[in-house]
């Protein structure tokens, strides 16, 4: 098969040629956009799921939908070592530019508020190189969004941005990837700001994406977050959608999969979107001709697995220390021994038993792995891999 015409896209965050199985989320978001723009009450949105299920792709697609409606949008990626102020300021700067408000004075005022919000992180005596310079020429607005209390400042900031959007009958969408990595104070402030904006009816929404424990992070911050956001779990694709993700792009290139080949592909990928793209690309490159057969998939599978072992699994495994790797392997072994689910959910006590250690002594390794985003705790006393098939990868390493 011609590799130049290979339609599959296994890159991180790259939109696949066929965004299968997400029509429900896209349709619901269109309703949210219309309701918010008309001043109707609507909740912000949180997407959760494992690595490789397409959260970032969906987040970007939702942002594109907002842009098509004429909204101002901005996107940021949360990091555990970074405050919310600077990345959010950059995102809102872009959103304000996209709004196209006709009053230069009103725009400059809001840009000045954004600047004061960002610069508050550096402090009044910060050196020039430590001050945030986002390309905003408007002077900082003193006394607005610069109190130093992130909750107060964020409410004031989004209120002013929302007012600018309301003037032109549009909305503003803030899209936050890896939302679980926001610091506790920033998470609390974001919840409080969303609550205030919702009550005031301003056309601003936050769309967050994160790992499965993100709802628990939000709930621990503000109890009302359970009612503040609309939570959507993004999971692996059902069989029909998984087949379409493979067959539709192939059809565009005048190629096809035999039914048995699709059976084999689903068995290998488990319906996880990233794996579908990774296997699809490798199988296409190695298959001699169309239609792609079951045997073609079996021949190409080892190469696909090798690439995943390096780029998808290995890159994460390398971030772990020796003690953390022992913990990960014990998780994988315990999952098999105890018949755990597809993502290897096990009790922390069982992991300790496999390592013949007290659970308390393993807390540092467990906590470090959670901070690195390799495992998560969906409920007290239980943990799971954030990456599907990670346990299988670990067991294959020996």
From TrEMBL:
Residues 1-23 are annotated as: Disordered. This is Cytochrome c domain-containing protein. InterPro entries: AAA_16, Cyt_c-like_dom, P-loop_NTPase. GO terms for molecular function: electron transfer activity; heme binding; metal ion binding. Keywords: Heme, Iron, Metal-binding. Gene3D superfamilies: P-loop containing nucleotide triphosphate hydrolases (3.40.50.300). It comes from Nocardioides albus. Pfam families: AAA_16 (PF13191). Residues 166-359 form the Cytochrome c domain.
């Amino acid at each position: 098969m011609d590799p130049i015409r290979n339609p599959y896209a296994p890159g991180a965050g790259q939109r696949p040629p066929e965004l299968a199985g997400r029509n429900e989320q896209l349709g619901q978001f269109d309703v949210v956009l219309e309701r918010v723009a008309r001043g109707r009450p609507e909740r912000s949105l949180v997407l959760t799921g494992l690595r490789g299920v397409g959260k970032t792709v969906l987040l970007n697609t939702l942002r594109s939908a907002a842009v098509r409606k004429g909204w101002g949008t901005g996107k940021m990626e949360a990091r555990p070592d970074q405050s919310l102020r600077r990345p959010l300021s950059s995102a809102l700067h872009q959103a304000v530019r996209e709004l196209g408000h006709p009053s230069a004075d009103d725009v400059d005022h809001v840009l000045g508020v954004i600047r004061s919000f960002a610069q508050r992180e550096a402090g009044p005596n910060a050196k020039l190189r430590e001050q945030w310079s986002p390309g905003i020429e408007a002077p900082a607005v003193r006394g607005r969004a610069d109190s130093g209390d992130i909750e107060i400042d964020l409410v004031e900031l989004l209120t002013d941005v929302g007012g600018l959007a309301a003037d032109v009958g549009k909305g503003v969408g803030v899209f936050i990837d890896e939302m679980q990595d926001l610091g506790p104070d920033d998470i609390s402030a974001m919840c409080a700001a969303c609550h205030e904006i919702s009550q005031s009816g301003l056309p601003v929404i936050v769309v967050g994406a994160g790992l499965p424990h993100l709802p628990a992070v939000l709930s621990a911050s503000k109890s009302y977050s359970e009612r503040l956001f609309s939570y959507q779990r993004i999971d692996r694709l059902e069989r029909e959608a998984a087949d379409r993700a493979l067959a539709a792009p192939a059809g565009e290139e005048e190629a096809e999969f035999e039914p048995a080949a699709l059976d084999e592909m689903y068995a290998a990928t488990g319906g996880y979107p990233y794996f579908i793209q990774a296997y699809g690309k490798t199988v296409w490159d190695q298959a001699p001709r169309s239609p792609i057969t079951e045997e073609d998939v079996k021949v190409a599978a080892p190469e696909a697995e090798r690439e995943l072992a390096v780029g998808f699994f290995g890159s994460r495994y390398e971030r772990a220390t020796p003690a953390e790797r022992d913990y990960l392997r014990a998780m994988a072994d315990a999952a098999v021994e105890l018949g755990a689910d597809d993502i290897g959910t096990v009790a922390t006590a069982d992991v300790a038993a496999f390592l013949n250690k007290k659970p308390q002594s393993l807390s540092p390794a467990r906590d470090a792995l959670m901070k690195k985003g390799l495992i998560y705790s969906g409920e007290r006393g239980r943990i799971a891999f954030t990456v599907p098939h990670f346990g299988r990868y670990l067991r294959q390493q020996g």
